[in-house]
Structures are given as structure tokens and as C-alpha cells.
Amino acid sequence: MHVGVRVVRPVGLVRARSALRAGAAAALVVAVCAGCSLLDRDEEVDQVSVFDVAVGDCFRAPEDIEQELTELSRVDCAEPHEQELYALAVYDDEGATDFPGAEALKAFADGRCAQEFEDYVGVDYRDSTLFFTYLVPSPRSWDRDADRTTLCFITTTGEQLTASVAGSEW
Q1: Which residues contact 123 (CB under 8 A, 6 or more apart)?
Q2: Helix (H) or strand (E) holding 111
Q3: In terms of DSSP H, where are the helices of 8-150?
Q4: Is 111:151 a contact under the CB 8 Å cutoff?
Q5: By the 8 A CB rule, do 156 and 130 touch?
Q6: Contact in structure between 26 and 8 (CB atoms under 8 Å)
Q7: Residues above pLDDT 70, as percent of the chain
Q8: What is the pLDDT of residues 36-53, one digit of tens each?
Q9: Geometric angle at alpha carbon 72, from 146 and 121, rounded to 5°
Q10: Is residue 163 left, alpha or beta, with left meaning phi > 0 and alpha meaning psi from -120 to 50?
Q11: End-to-end CA distance of the chain
Q12: Contact status, residue 16 vs residue 133, Cβ threshold 8 Å
């Protein structure tokens, strides 16, 4: 299970570039979803465990925001989607066996996802028209599954993506 820290924009879209860029007016929420319902869409959606995703996979954003996210709605990147996984960032604080806390994981994710952005998209996130968001391990998956991986996703401010953004320099 993963917990996502995201910025909710006034238009009701769940998006984030980073806490630094989001601005003080943005409301931070811990977003996690179990058994998310999606809008009725024609595209083939594959429900996949958060532990079975790969860089380059594209996803539909969850409609409902709840406590924990165990599955994601994966689609072909040629189909309309809101998110693309671009990095699997492992929290590697040597000797860290206890859950470090939400703030420590959020700080890690903000920095590491920002670092990985340029390698995937081809442009620094501060110069991009794209944003990023992430899912971090929950205390339960940290303890039970030895989960140390943050999932970094490319996202937009409203328009759906219809192709991979890898190397796009957007």
C-alpha cells in the first residue's frame, strides 16, 4: 500500500509538481485509494498492484481519494491518461528499519522525483509544462512488505496525455 502526497488545485484536479512550486495557497492532502472507481471509459484498464508497476507505465488517476492505494488503473500510453510512472525511487537511509514518518518520506520524494524528472522527460521540471506527483510507502507496507519505494509520476494540469512523455522535452 502506498500513500500519496498531492496538491489539490481549485479546479478539482489532483496534481503536483512539488511542494516548493505548488505555492502556499495549495491544500496538501494525503491521498490514497483502495478499490478506486473510475469514470466509464472505453479504453482497456488493467488494475495492477502498486508493487507490480514499471517505469513507462501509464495510468488513470483515481476518481476517489481515500486512505490507502493498493492498485492503480494502468492503460496503454496511446490511450488518454493522467499519469505516467517515470521513476522508482528507493528510500536508502542505511539502517532505517523504523518507518521514518510522512514528512521524511515527503521530503525524500520531493527531492528525488525532481532529480529523476529531467532524465526521463529531457527537461528540468521547472522548465516543463508537466508536473509530478508521487506515492510513498505507507507505514503498513513499510513494516509488513519492507517497502521502501516511492513511485514518481508525470502528470498534467488538466489535459489528458495520449502518448508517453519520455524524452518529449515538454
Answers
A1: 169, 170
A2: helix 102-121
A3: 19-22, 102-121, 139-145
A4: no
A5: yes
A6: yes
A7: 71
A8: 333 344 457 899 999 999
A9: 90
A10: beta
A11: 31
A12: yes
